[in-house]
């Protein structure tokens, strides 16, 4: 009986302790242990750095279990730890150790990170096994898209799997995205299959996808590696007129090639173009520029490249210590340097600008105080990345003003461009005006791209008057503007005015443009004609078409398509038919959708003879009409895409590709 009472007492005490634990456990996880989101971010970063260093040590299994039992361990920490893993084996050992942590469950982010590491390491078998497990729902409802699969297989250099996924993508979606073509192009280019790269690019434009800046980066890099530097420059110089942003990667590839050829005049020209485009040089570019410095060529560009050509001694390395990463900063990708195989590792601190920007969204005094205490090393690139990830213009502006007072940092044309674009996009005209006034007072010359960005983004925020003010009064802040760039600026303003419904202002500005000797390009005319045709203003459309002819420009197939569709929508099928005949007589071919629309419109308006003529057109020529005509209003013409394709295909054909 006494034993039963003791047993009952023990069971009661055990139940009491378990109950207290169950009551206290939710409180432990419910109570936020950090006073600010910035503090939370910093502690997470510290844990990620500790895991990164442990994975690079000789005995990671010794301290890894302790780190993985840390209360801050979650999918965010694991995702970035996996992305930072030095090898596939270390990533797999981390996941195996995580299997022993009962409270952790994989998410879409952690599994995608693991798949990326396996793919980049060429571990195709493990990658496919992981994909099969995900599809079998072993990790719950984790999604894998066609693009995920294509990116992973491409990283693993598995071209057959990439093509197989693309075929599935085509069956599932009528229009695969541009990036799917980019992936295949890039992989074929790496494999040296020139003819296959050209075929994929042709399929992209033939199937109605518009090449983007990455498409042209792949193309330029491919041409440079094939020894076709002249053709690469031809395409590079055409990009602004196709409204395609020229990227740092494109500049880097071309500059490196010209330096290797000792063609320093071309390098100087590209450096000037970088300033016009507002492209911030990378640290990696400094290695290529050292040769120019030895030749005594770079003088005026020294200041321009000061931050990237000289190491910033404020940024230190962290050693093999768990608690040494809170006040450090990682600018770009991490670089690992093994100074001693046993107990010494140098590693840049982990940093995620997006996560840090998200932590700062409230911009409270406590968050700011925590940020100051972190003692980050503020560089131009770091500040630009933070600004890019702010969703609130108010928070971005507060940060912009705050960081200007931090030791060792001064705003430059790149940080100004980043903040002014964000403010213009959100319609914060008063802040843009304040910033422009400050720029004018200090005598700063901003890149041409900054002025154009402001005008473009004022179109999104519907601020026509502000855009006109910048064009008329502030555009000289970028210095002398070439005739070709002025044409692009006029085109941006005309597009913004149409977005804001300022029809008469747009036509007046067009007249001013022509009177000043600036001829609009096909894209500008097509954008204006598309806009007024959608309004049913056929008279203005015809006037614009006449102006195009008087300017010496010839309509391309895409412009004809825009006009025919506009006339059909306005129930003026007779006019659309005349254009169709004009198009045919010019030796141009419409796409099948435009032809079908014209036939249907003619039938609706009782013009059966014309409808039959259109129906039978091109039959005698045995011409297969394309599914889509390449081009886009305001941005790129059919002629531009055809020219780029011909340059690319012809030079590779002559190369024996």
UniProtKB/TrEMBL annotation:
Matching InterPro entries: At5g66631-like, PPR_rpt, TPR-like_helical_dom_sf
Pfam families for this protein: PPR, PPR_2
Source organism superkingdom: Eukaryota
This protein's name: Putative tetratricopeptide-like helical domain-containing protein
Organism in which the protein naturally occurs: Lupinus albus
């Amino acid at each position: 009986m006494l034993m039963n009472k003791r047993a009952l007492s023990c069971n009661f005490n055990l139940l009491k302790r378990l109950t207290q634990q169950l009551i206290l456990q939710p409180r432990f996880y419910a109570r936020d242990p950090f006073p600010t989101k910035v503090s939370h971010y910093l502690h997470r970063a510290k844990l990620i750095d500790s895991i990164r260093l442990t994975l690079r040590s000789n005995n990671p299994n010794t301290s890894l279990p302790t780190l993985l039992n840390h209360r801050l361990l979650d999918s965010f920490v694991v995702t970035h730890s996996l992305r930072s893993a030095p090898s596939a084996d270390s990533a797999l050992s981390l996941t195996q150790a995580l299997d022993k942590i009962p409270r952790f469950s994989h998410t879409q982010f952690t599994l995608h990170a693991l798949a990326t590491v396996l793919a980049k390491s060429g571990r195709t078998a493990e990658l496919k096994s992981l994909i099969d497990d995900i599809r079998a729902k072993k990790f719950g409802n984790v999604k894998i898209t066609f693009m995920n699969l294509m990116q992973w297989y491409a990283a693993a250099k598995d071209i057959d799997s990439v093509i197989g996924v693309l075929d599935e993508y085509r069956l599932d979606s009528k229009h695969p995205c541009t990036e799917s073509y980019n992936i295949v192009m890039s992989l074929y280019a790496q494999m040296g299959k020139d003819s296959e790269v050209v075929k994929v690019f042709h399929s992209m434009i033939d199937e109605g996808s518009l090449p983007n800046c990455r498409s042209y980066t792949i193309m330029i890099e491919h041409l440079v590696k094939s020894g076709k530097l002249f053709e690469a420059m031809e395409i590079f110089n055409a990009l602004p007129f196709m409204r395609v942003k020229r990227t740092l990667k494109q500049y880097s590839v071309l500059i490196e090639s010209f330096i290797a050829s000792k063609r320093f005049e071309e390098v100087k020209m590209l450096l000037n173009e970088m300033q016009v485009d507002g492209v911030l040089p990378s640290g990696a570019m400094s290695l290529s520029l050292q040769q120019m410095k030895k030749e005594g060529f770079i003088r005026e560009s020294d200041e321009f490249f000061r931050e990237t050509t000289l190491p910033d001694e404020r940024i230190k390395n962290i050693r093999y210590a768990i608690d040494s990463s809170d006040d450090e900063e990682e600018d770009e990708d991490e670089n690992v340097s093994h100074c001693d195989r046993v107990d010494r590792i140098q590693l840049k601190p982990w940093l995620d600008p997006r996560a840090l920007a998200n932590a700062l969204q409230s911009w409270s005094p406590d968050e700011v105080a925590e940020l100051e205490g972190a003692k980050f090393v503020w560089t131009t690139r770091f500040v630009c990345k933070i600004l890019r990830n702010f969703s609130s213009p108010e928070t971005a502006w507060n940060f912009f003003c705050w960081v200007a007072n931090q030791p060792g940092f001064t705003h430059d044309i790149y940080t100004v461009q980043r903040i002014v674009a964000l403010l213009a996009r959100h319609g914060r005209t008063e802040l843009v005006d304040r910033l422009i006034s400050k720029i004018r007072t200090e005598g700063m010359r901003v890149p041409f791209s900054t002025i154009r960005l402001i005008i473009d983004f004022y179109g999104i925020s519907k601020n026509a008057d502000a855009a006109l003010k910048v064009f008329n009064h502030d555009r000289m802040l970028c210095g002398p503007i070439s005739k070709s760039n002025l044409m692009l600026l006029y085109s941006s303003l005309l597009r913004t005015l149409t977005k804001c419904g300022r029809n008469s202002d747009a036509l007046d500005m067009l007249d001013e443009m022509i009177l000043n000797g600036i001829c609009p390009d096909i894209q500008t005319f097509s954008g204006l004609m598309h806009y007024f045709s959608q309004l049913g203003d056929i008279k203005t459309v015809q006037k614009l078409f006449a102006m195009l002819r008087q300017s010496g420009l010839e309509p391309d197939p895409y412009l004809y398509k825009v006009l025919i569709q506009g006339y059909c929508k306005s129930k003026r099928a007779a006019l659309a038919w005349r254009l169709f005949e004009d198009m045919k007589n010019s030796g141009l071919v419409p796409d099948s959708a435009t032809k079908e629309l014209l036939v249907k419109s003619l039938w609706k308006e009782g013009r059966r003879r014309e409808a039959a003529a259109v129906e039978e057109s091109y039959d005698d020529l045995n011409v297969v009409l394309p599914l889509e005509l390449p081009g886009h209003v305001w941005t790129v013409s059919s002629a531009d895409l055809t020219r780029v394709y011909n340059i690319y295909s012809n030079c590779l054909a002559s190369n024996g590709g």
